[in-house]
Amino acid sequence: MKDVKLMKGNEAIALGAVNAGCDGYFGYPITPQSEIIETLMEMKPWETTGMAVLQAESEIASINMVYGAAAMGKKAMTTSSSPGISLCSEGLSYIAGAELPCVVVNVQRGGPGLGTIQPAQADYAQAVKAPGHGDFNLIVLAPNSVQEMYDHVFLAYELAFKYRNPAMILTDGVIGQMMEKLVVDEAKPRMTEEFIRENYGSWALVGNKGVVTSLELEASRQEKVNERIQAKYKALKENEVRVEMTDCDDAEFVIVAFGSSARIAAKSVEILRAEGIKAGLLRPITLFPFPDKQLQDLAAKGVKGFLVAELNAGQMVKDVRLAVNGARPVEYYGRMGGMIYSPGEIAEALKEKLIEKTK
Amino acid sequence: MTEEIIIAGFGGQGVLSLGKILAYSGIMQDKEVSWMPSYGPEMRGGTANVTVMISDRRISSPIGQEYDTAIILNQQSMDKFEKTVKPGGVLIYDPNGITRHPERRDISIYTIAATEEASRRGNSKIFNTIVLGGYLKVKPGVVTLDNVYAGIKSSLPERAWKTLPANEEAVRIGMELIRKPE
């Protein structure tokens, strides 16, 4: 039974958690994502699926509750916005070190510090490079619609369990606060204890004695852990890159943007096309793993230049430059601190930075 | 068909709910919709605005820069959004509290004295549905009246359904009330 709703992105995350069979949500309210915990409290899933919803005393407590639930092979989740995600750093590193699955949502706001409550994408580098100490990465998904906010909860759990690694949904105040249509599929039941024992019994604590830790006193053994973790990232890069390309087949200039920026840039492409400029849009859906190959292919195919549009000081542009590796010019256009660009601004930036220069 | 609307006024005027009714009405009519609010401290006492898009096609950017229709409910919003109406577009405003009236000649301008009418009827809560009626009168091609009534119902929690007749009446009042400025 398909069911069409009008919903905020944040509400879609909450509904997605319940319908994806999440076992426990632990969070602390912060704008612009407080609707997630509010919606869960209103839904009372503990009365239907048995999912636990708990307002923790802090984000540090939340992420450690997630760690505990994940160690039992449960589908655990926390959500926050930028400053709260920084508080989760230590916990995320421990969870990655212990090789456990979980889903974390960051509905970004402007920074640094407490910053603003308006939308930003300034935590890109934190999410894809260094979400905490030590050599580890998160699986990072970047939804660009209310529908994807919902769908990505399912995808995040699928990937997190497949690779036994924390997955992050990196979104922002635009997608979190906006309402759009949402088509809801049938809900997945929560995993049974038998299912967890059969499928995840090798690592999950299911009634058995065991220790889950990220501590290793012997450096040579720790290196083995690191090698195993890095092998997972290699497999992720080979198998799990997701990307959406719009009007790229004949494009001379390609805008690269993720999440809310990709929505705005899609309109910029329409504006540019109406003016006779062959523009296209490449939208990374997975930010880690990053679509290096797709960018290289476009550069090899004769795209004359790339413009990276992002709501930060120029973070993803560095990854695009690494991928394109000097083959074509890669320029940046952005706004910061909670300010948003209009579709026309990005279109003008493309003309100024790429077309004027390559003439 | 794509209709891009900005609704702007004070927090508490029902700006966001008016947008929500339009978005729901669009869904009832099987259109694509987006509803993008300003959010945060400006909602409480300051200015509030929402961008609503209703389209036959998938909506690319939920963030607009030029609008087919601007519904303007205070002076700050007039100063900010009069210039964002597309040439040939529509600007609807409530003259209550407006000291500088719109000056553009390349758009269609309408006034709706909804604050006055709502207060005359002793029900400030129907203010935004009066405005909605005015909008539907000058833009009849976007959503049908039946779908708007269904949209009002969907946008309200069940406990507020007792207000449906008053809101439907307000829509009809708004349709009568809207006029070209003298």
Produce the secondary structure layout.
The complex is a heterodimer of chains A (about 350) and B (about 180).
Chain A: E1 3-8, H1 9-19, E2 24-27, H2 34-43, E3 52-55, H3 59-71, E4 76-80, H4 82-87, H5 89-97, E5 102-108, H6 124-128, E6 139-141, H7 146-163, E7 166-172, H8 173-177, E8 179-184, H9 193-200, H10 219-239, E9 243-246, E10 253-256, H11 259-274, E11 279-284, E12 286-288, H12 292-300, E13 305-310, H13 316-324, E14 330-334, H14 343-358
Parallel strand pairs in A: 2-3, 2-4, 4-5, 5-7, 6-7, 10-11, 10-13, 13-14
Antiparallel strand pairs in A: 1-8, 6-12, 9-11
Chain B: E1 2-10, H1 15-28, E2 32-37, E3 47-55, E4 67-72, H2 75-81, E5 85-93, E6 108-111, H3 114-120, H4 127-138, H5 145-155, H6 164-177
Parallel strand pairs in B: 1-4, 4-5, 5-6
Antiparallel strand pairs in B: 1-3, 2-3
Helix pairs in contact in B: 1-5, 3-4, 4-6
Question: Which properties best describe this structure?
Answer:
heterodimer; A: about 350 residues; alpha/beta; Rossmann fold; 2 domains; seven-stranded mixed sheet; five-stranded mixed sheet; 14 helices; B: about 180 residues; Pyruvate-ferredoxin Oxidoreductase, domain 3; six-stranded mixed sheet; globular
Describe this structure in words.
The complex is a heterodimer of chains A (359) and B (182). Chain A is α/β, with parallel strands linked by helices. Chain A folds into 2 domains: 3-239, Thiamin diphosphate (ThDP)-binding fold, Pyr/PP domains (Rossmann fold), CATH 3.40.50; 243-358, Rossmann fold. Chain A has helices at residues 9-19, 34-43, 59-71, 82-87, 89-97, 124-128, 146-163, 173-177, 193-200, 219-239, 259-274, 292-300, 316-324, 343-358; strands at residues 3-8, 24-27, 52-55, 76-80, 102-108, 139-141, 166-172, 179-184, 243-246, 253-256, 279-284, 286-288, 305-310, 330-334. Chain A has a 7-stranded mixed beta sheet, sandwiched between helices. The mean pLDDT of chain A is 96. The longest helix of chain B has 14 residues, at 15-28. The relative contact order of chain B is 0.18. Chain B has a 6-stranded mixed beta sheet, sandwiched between helices. Chain B has one domain (2-177): Pyruvate-ferredoxin Oxidoreductase, domain 3 (3-Layer(aba) Sandwich). Chain B is an alpha/beta fold. The interface between A and B is medium-sized, with 26 and 21 residues. Strand 8 of chain A pairs antiparallel with strand 2 of chain B, so a sheet runs across the interface.
